[in-house]
Each structure stands twice: as C-alpha cells, then as structure tokens.
Design goal:
41% helix; Rossmann fold; 6 strands; alpha/beta; six-stranded mixed beta sheet; globular
Length: 150
Amino acid sequence: MKNDLNIYVDADACPVKDEAVRVADRHQATIHFVSNAPMRLPVGFDVRRVIVSDGFDAADDWIAERAGKGDVVITSDIPLAERCLKAGAQVIGATGKPFTADNIGMGMAMRELSRDLRDMGEISGAGPSFSKKDRSRFLEALELAVRKAG
C-alpha cells in the first residue's frame, strides 16, 4: 500500500541518492529528485525525476513551494533547509545531520561567516570529504525522520 509521505531531494550534488531510495522503498514513499539537469537516478518504488530550469535557486524554489508538514527534505543547502523547516517539513543533510529550529540560525550564521572568509581568501576549498560514517549516519537519520513523519 502506497504511503502519502513525500521525500524531496535537492539532487544536483546529493551523494546519498541510492540510500534515500532504499529508505523510500521500504516505506513505500514517493521520492522526488529535483535537479537542474538530467542525471542517472536509482530505480525504486515511486521515484520521480523533476528537472527545473537552470535559473538561480530554481530547484530550491520548486522544493520549498511543495514541502510541508509530514514531508522530509534532503539537502545540504542551509537557506533551503530554513525555508522547508518554516513550512513544517523535516530536513536532513547528506551527512545525516538534521536541521532543526534550534540549529538553523547557527547554520545560517556559519554559512555567512564561511562565505566572508572565502571572499577574503582566509579559507579555500569545500570541507571534509564524504565518508562511510556520513553515509551510515544519513541512513539512520532518514529512517528516523520517515518513521516520525508516518
């Protein structure tokens, strides 16, 4: 029997697509992969591909306009996470870290600080690489979020 749960994935740079589909399949949830360009997606129970324009924040806007109470969003984009939290959705980063009302403000502040430091040449590069531990933590966090949503 199909579940009414929707999982929205900010898919362009998401390293946990296969894991997200496994959890969605286990719960018979619909999973929407939203991206600016076509990409290979895992096969699953109810996998939907959404390709938006390549306009600035087009994928974020599509997700934020639809995600709400009872939905789960997977993104590493902090402003998108904040928008989805305000709409009542649960939000999880690809490393398994949940975004919450309690930590999103600090996340936004750290994002701004990091951008300023990059602009000044004080830091460079992306952060630490994605690990097996991150993948495992993500699976656990998504499973918990889906159970809570159901």
